[in-house]
What we know:
- The chain is mainly α.
- It has one domain.
- Helices cover 80% and strands 0% of the residues.
- It starts with a helix and ends in a 6-residue tail after the last helix.
Amino acid sequence: METHVYWMFVLALPVACIAWTVTKEEVFKEVREYCVNKSKTCRYFFERKFFYLFTCEYCFSHYVTILILFVSEYTLLYPDWRGYFIAGFSIVWIANVYMSIYNLIRIDLKKEKLQAQKEEEKLKNGDLSS
């Protein structure tokens, strides 16, 4: 049982990585902008929802998890469809925790970078008052 839980945390890593990269990073910017546009302008409800899936890291992580479960054949607690069901939602939850932590770290790093740039500008301008 302990190894099953261990694998759940390991399998959540590629899910988080793939979901974050597709929905947030610059490398997929054009595709994401296209999907955002289609998710707002498509005529049919199901078309709009299909394209929305590629813009939301939480939604997309479900589909990445399904792919990972198919490839890895990982189950949790039960060796049948129930194990896939439980594993799927568990991996999605952990992957989204990973993405939330990553987002907090990125925000903190961006904040520090902006503060450092402000300090550099003050030093260049000769403002030593703060």
